[in-house]
Amino acid sequence: MNTAILTIDDIPSLNTPAIVDYLNEKGITAVMFATGQHLEKYPEAAEYAVKNGMIVGNHSYSHPAFSSLNLEEARREIEETEKLLDALYARCGVQRRYKPFRFPYGDKGGENTPALQQMLKEYGIHKLDDRHIPYAWWKENGLDKAIDTFWTFDFAEYRMHSEPDFTKESIWARMHDPAPQSGAVLFREGNRHILLLHAHDESDAILPGYYRLFIDHLLEGGITFDVPEFLEA
Q1: Over the stretch 147-180, which tens digit does the pLDDT of each residue have?
Q2: pTM of the full predicted structure?
Q3: What is the DSSP string of the chain?
Q4: Averaged pLDDT for residues 11-16
């Protein structure tokens, strides 16, 4: 069996409700990481995600590279979005059971990494249960100990926005790469994944329903989706 947990970055967006509807159609619960700026810009789309069963986590306020920030700046990025997420769940009348966090770009803060991990503990951030991830490089890079949520496979569909040569076919090739430079092979019996997709209206403009195309392909390839579970904060 080849299983996966789906994570989606950069919500809310105009296409977030359509993504949520599709995921519910397929019986998939995703962890959706929101930026504070987008929460302020598209509050109704974020409410739609929460009310329709998605887990919405913290992706910072303004999506910076955390290695470029001092600790006080980093704290503001985390704290401002935590406040917005608390308010979001309260508006929706939904208990905020889980508080996951993902660093933009997977940038854990450079020399401030240990201090930032401690900061995440202070804010009660929940670690996605990744004990099923089997790859040696996951542990070698300390990802099994980190509180923030990383990934094993990135579709990288956002590259379509800025790279004319990066197309649907490029993503298809990435999905079937038998020896990827980073991450794990997507289609291999017994593999376990934390998948990274993005909620970008720009991607929909280039490739309408891109999320549906990719996830349908995963399902057709025998990948099943687990309900995300979390470890105690």
Answers
A1: 999 999 999 999 999 999 999 999 999 999 999 9
A2: 0.97
A3: -EEEEEEEEEE--TTHHHHHHHHHHHT---EEEE-HHHHHH-HHHHHHHHHTT-EEEE--SS---GGGS-HHHHHHHHHHHHHHHHHHHHHHT-------B--GGG---GGGHHHHHHHHHHTTPPPB--TT---HHHHHTTTTT-SS---SEE--GGGGGT-TT--HHHHHHHHT-SS-SSS--SS-TT-EEEEEEE--HHHHHHSTTHHHHHHHHHHHTTEEEPPP-B---
A4: 98
